[in-house]
Amino acid sequence: MPSDLPLAERRHSVAAALRARLPERVVLSDPEDTRPYECDGLAAYRQLPMIVTLPENEEQVVTILNVCRELGVRIVPRGAGTGLSGGAMPISDGVVVSTARLNRIVRMDPYARVAVVQPGVRNLAISEAAAPHGLYYAPDPSSQIACTIGGNVAENSGGVHCLKYGLTVHNVLRVRVATIEGDVVELGGEALDAPGLDLLSVFIGSEGMLGIVTEVTVKLVPKPAQARVIMASFDDVVTGANAVASVIAAGIIPAGLEMMDRTSSRMVEPFVHAGYDTDAAAILLCEADGTELEVEEEIGRMSAVLEDAGASAIAVSRSEAERLKFWSGRKNAFPAAGRISPDYYCMDGTIPRKNLAQVLRGIERMEQEFGLRCANVFHAGDGNLHPLILFDANKPDEFERAEAFGAAILALCVEVGGTITGEHGVGIEKIGSMCIQFTRAELDTFFAVKRAFDVSFLLNPDKAIPTLHRCAEFGRMHVSKGQLPFADLPRF
Amino acid sequence: MPSDLPLAERRHSVAAALRARLPERVVLSDPEDTRPYECDGLAAYRQLPMIVTLPENEEQVVTILNVCRELGVRIVPRGAGTGLSGGAMPISDGVVVSTARLNRIVRMDPYARVAVVQPGVRNLAISEAAAPHGLYYAPDPSSQIACTIGGNVAENSGGVHCLKYGLTVHNVLRVRVATIEGDVVELGGEALDAPGLDLLSVFIGSEGMLGIVTEVTVKLVPKPAQARVIMASFDDVVTGANAVASVIAAGIIPAGLEMMDRTSSRMVEPFVHAGYDTDAAAILLCEADGTELEVEEEIGRMSAVLEDAGASAIAVSRSEAERLKFWSGRKNAFPAAGRISPDYYCMDGTIPRKNLAQVLRGIERMEQEFGLRCANVFHAGDGNLHPLILFDANKPDEFERAEAFGAAILALCVEVGGTITGEHGVGIEKIGSMCIQFTRAELDTFFAVKRAFDVSFLLNPDKAIPTLHRCAEFGRMHVSKGQLPFADLPRF
């Protein structure tokens, strides 16, 4: 189909081609119907899609892919739209494929400890369905009440427990994928290892660029008999950051190890009354889970390490209710930010734990430089930072300053040997920062693999991996490994 | 270079091209020098390589790749040659790239708990170097005294502790890879997650088909304060197999959970005096590790579960010496097989734990069918079987019967929802069985990814992934998912 047709005409003919092979209710083309799909959690960027499809089974997914491939129409897969990096942002002349109606739990096997679910099943719904068997699905993004397992697969989502239990990639055993060629392939399996190339891992976190997932087999883990959490206060952020390293260095892998600075705890406390020490420069939340004996021992060891590391106060949850209260503040940090600032920008960089203090000091300096406040609340145990940059989009250039602030934080993360994303993905938000993270040969390799799955670049194009042209425009040179990969491109 | 040149001439000119750019000692072309490289641990297959190279640094690896690419010469990467599936079997007109001289520990960082090593460093040497810091590298293949980390990466090796600590893919953070294009790329990183496609996981276990690893960053874990092992006896194999499932179902992840049948324990006991109950139809070894309290609690819980599951006797190691004695039998099962049978064939299939009993009974039946004995000694907790088929290659068609027996075991593994390899790779040994495991679309996807890294198929060609032609010759149809992928090929 010639792409220079006026949009309305193109919409009309693509919709007709889809409707010829799919039930009426599966294809939305009226802008009134497609408006709700114009953005995901990165709401600063909006684009009305040409068409939205809501397939109800795998066969319909394959049909949509076949029609789009035959017509050369680009596709944006979409889960619940809670993503924070714009991975599900539509294309003006593209088709959104929403997995919202693929929401069936196919099989729950408590004996083998696996659940087979469709991609539109919500993260929390899996744990709810597994609860009668004493099991749950471990990765727990803050959005777990809304986000879907298909979206989790696309972004390789984490959560507060992934220090101990791993990211999505560590908890998914198998995916069924509809490819742009209209094939259905299975990647991975229920066995510990699979022969052939590990395409499951490459698919997880591929941000909708390699295929559309139609079924996911997840690992379930036993609900620990008990969990308790320590809240430790620190008089300065550096001492708190170093305490994180001490806990890990002592050979303890807490079930959660989170840090909040004073800006964050003061932001959230009036809102949720979590009982936080708002005088402390930083607080750490360290959870132990397991049998009663295990928890008792680990809480004891962690308390000792935290005291040695200079904690000014230590409180341990005395009941499940108090444990949940301690966590409620952490889990509601983002909504709380919305109460004290008209807008906020949530970053997601990951750094080696040993550089926590250095990067936090760097962010402090940047607050001055960019004239914006930043609240730090993050997965300290993983070194996964979530600085919340507070701004007001209605004030002149605050949005631009917030973006520049965010990019500067990511550049610092890469500089100390970290990465530009921990769990939120690259999407459109961080595509420029990818040019700092990777060499040209590395980006080339990504594209080669992308091409192996999708030779015409129809699946979620222009997301996640920047072209060399884009990097040249971005004007960044990757130098962290002593190479200047774009040396043969014009300098800026 | 035209490939129809006589071999001697071709050897001469390729060696000359290599020697023009590399020190003399790096290139071996005399058959007397290259003979030791004619096979790996799958010694039934032998092939003298045209040339062997022994690069001493990354730059030399890149040079060898460049020369081979320019001349269109195929390459077989090789670690210590302990692999059991023929992944390092040479090609008559190809160049072997051995990593033997890339054996330097580059950096040991006990604070970040990582070691950076060259690919030729032996698996055990990493743990030895980390020991002064109270750390070790977890995956422990039986061959760990000899096998190298580069080979472990190529095969995604496991070991007796991988139920709790994971396979190579779970313990490697980053690899540096020299590609066939002569680029050096880094895959993965020290952070919990990396942006872009997860090419680290696809590289691990890719059996030398995607590039040559020049540096590996591994995770180190703290040496547990204590470890103890239970030896549980069972009157029949089925009860033992079901006990394995019971342990896991009780929410326990033992540090090791291994099973040996009577054939195995009687084979090994006279040789190592491990103290095994040779009257039992099967014994289980279940290890707990951690702090003293944790170990005590877990040993107690495991003993209770094993008793409930029908163990006829239970012994718990009372000292570190006794623990090592219990394990010594398991670790020496393969050499012991060599004492009672002129030859043995070690299989490596993985099945869902719930099918253990069914598959073991199936193997028993096959012993009659193929007229050969089989000793079963395996990673029961992972469902990773290692049936040892005992035969005498000097007797007419025993080798062929052993191969057919092995293929039948793998077919049974796939039938019950398992896979044809747990940790030994596909290599040349199981390339036929791949046709049963995967659909045509799945094999196509593997090839597309292979092509993304190596468009001319110069890197370890004809290993691991079968061509459709090969599957047609093999005469197998993949039907386990209700599809007949090769339906358009001639039937056999």
TrEMBL record, chains A, B:
InterPro entries to which the protein is assigned, alphabetical: FAD-bd_oxidored_4_C (IPR004113), FAD-bd_PCMH (IPR016166), FAD-bd_PCMH-like_sf (IPR036318), FAD-bd_PCMH_sub2 (IPR016169), FAD-linked_Oxase-like_C (IPR016164), FAD-linked_OxidoTrans_Type4 (IPR051914), Oxid_FAD_bind_N (IPR006094)
Source organism, top-level taxon: Bacteria
Record's keyword terms, sorted: FAD, Flavoprotein
Domain FAD-binding PCMH-type: 45-223
GO molecular function per UniProt: catalytic activity; FAD binding
Coiled coil (UniProt feature): none
Name of the protein this chain belongs to: FAD-binding protein
